[in-house]
């Protein structure tokens, strides 16, 4: 079993590796992801509600033509998601006659917030979720690889040991996991490596950002710290998340300088988790009421 000093050395080495990755900038995968995501329209609050009511599991929606531009095509027989598209008119430059047009909330057809058009009504328009399309895959974040083995169960036991409940279930906002102050929820469909990383990330939030210190931090600081802790824990547990973690931090505008500012907090929590992982027996059985599977949650 590693000593406290050895664990500290591993944490320091992992921290330095993450700092170096951040200094290199965005990965090609993150650059491609951001370029693609920028082509998705930001819908109004009202239309977000309409989309959620009709297709709660929607993640990325766009109009028929936008999907074609992205190299994807709406599957035969798919029903569109109805939204309200503002109808507007504007003056022709050649005369005073009003030219009527539709400002559809699909990115390929305009933006309802245009200052050059005046809204005079709404009409129905239809968009489609990515799950309703086939074709060229959308760029994704770098994957997490490796096998945490028995350490996944150990990490669940560590979470339980802090008095935090854990459930594997669907999450409405599309996140892989969520920290809710005394409760962690994680998607049940993740690989073991992804699950391990997400658990470490959300546990870091629970330990770092659920007290008075939360008021002193920004979203960028919190996500940088949580993902840095997750990377250190993964690095010492045979899970490779280097590119994934650096891209995640950069997505929230974090950088090497911010990482260095949080060094003390990150090392303190990551070494604590690693020490507990070493002490927690691999055959610990978590009671069913403390870790709820998606099937059990549906039955409750």
Automatic annotation (TrEMBL):
Residues 15-119 form the N-terminal domain. Residues 181-231 form the IrrE N-terminal-like domain. Pfam families: ArdcN, Peptidase_M78. Residues 94-116 are annotated as: Disordered. One of its GO terms (molecular function) is single-stranded DNA binding. InterPro entries: ArdC_N, IrrE_HExxH. This is N-terminal domain-containing protein. It comes from Caulifigura coniformis.
